[in-house]
Amino acid sequence: MTALLELTDLHVYYGNIAAVRGLSLRVEPGEIVTLIGSNGAGKSTTLRTISGLQRPRRGAISFQGKRIDTLPTHDIVRLGIAHAPEGRQIFAKMSVRENLELGGFLRDDTEGLAADHESMLELFPRLRERLDQKAGTMSGGEQQMLAVASALMARPVLLLLDEPSMGLAPVLVELIFDTIARIREQGTTVLLVEQNARAALAVADRAYVLESGVLRLSDDAATLAADPAITQAYLGG
Ligand code: ATP
Question: Given 3-state DSSP classes, what are the helix, strand and coil percentages for the chain, each rounded to the nearest 5?
C-alpha cells in the first residue's frame, strides 16, 4: 500500500553538520505519528525538510506516492501539507481574524472557509474573544492555539505540528493534545514533533525515536510508552 508520506534514507545537512542521517519513516492515511527525541535530535529539521524549507542532501520524500523533495514550499502546501512550525510563527501585527484568513488563503470554497473559521473558534474559544486583537499581543499559549488553527484553516491532508505544547501551562497542554485527537477524527493525518514524549505517545498511534539525527527505534506508541528504556531516556524515569 502507498503510504501518505514516506521518507526514505533522508540525510539533511546544515553546511557540513549532519542534522538528519539516513532517516526512513512512513505515515499512513489517518494516523497520528510522533517523532520524539531530545534537543537537537533533528526533529524540526525533518519537518522543515518535508515542507521544502530545507533540502535533503540524500534520500527521498514522497507524498501520496509522488516525489516532493524537489518541489518549492508553495507547491508542497498546495498538495495539502500544512506546517505549524516551532515558535508560533504567526503574523504578529495582524489580528487573529486576519491570521485565520491567511491560513486559508489558497482555498476558494467560501462556504467551507466560513464553516472552518467557525469550527476553529469552537475548538479554541479563546480565539473568538480575541478576533480583533493583534496576534502579537496575545499570550504565548493563545498564539500557539492561533498557529495550530491557522494551519488547520488550510484544511490540510497532512498536518505537521512542531512542539505544539511548548511553553504552555498544563491545562493548555491537555487542550492541545485533545485538539490533535479531534483533528484526526475530522480526517487530517498528523505528524507530531514533541519533547513532551509522554503526552505525544498518549495521543499517537506510532512513534519514531530520533537520536542525534539517527533513527533509534520505531514502534506502536503504546509499546514505546511501556518500554523502560524509553521511559527512562525520554519520559523522566
Ligand atoms: P529541539 O527539540 O531542541 O527543537 P530538534 O530535534 O528539533 O531539537 P533540530 O532543530 O532539527 O533538532 O536540529 C538538529 C541539529 O541541527 C542541531 O544540532 C542543530 O543545532 C542543527 N541546526 C538546526 N538548524 C540549524 C541551522 N539553521 N544552522 C545550523 N545548524 C542547525
Answer: 40, 25, 35
Q: Which segments of the chain are extended strands (E)?
A: 5-14, 17-27, 32-36, 58-63, 66-67, 81-84, 158-162, 189-194, 206-211, 214-220
In this structure, CATH architecture of domain 5-234 = 3-Layer(aba) Sandwich (3.40)
Q: pLDDT 10s digit of each residue in the chain, 237 long?
A: 789 999 999 999 999 999 999 999 999 999 999 999 988 999 999 999 999 999 999 999 999 999 999 999 999 999 999 998 876 678 999 999 999 999 888 888 888 899 999 989 988 888 999 999 999 999 888 888 899 899 889 889 999 999 988 877 888 888 889 889 988 998 899 999 998 888 999 999 999 999 999 999 999 999 999 988 877 777 664
Evaluate: CB of 1 within 6 angstroms of ligand 1.
no
16 lines ligand 1 (CB under 6 A): no
Q: Is the CB of 136 under 6 A from ligand 1?
A: no
For the chain, what are the domain ranges?
Answer: 5-234
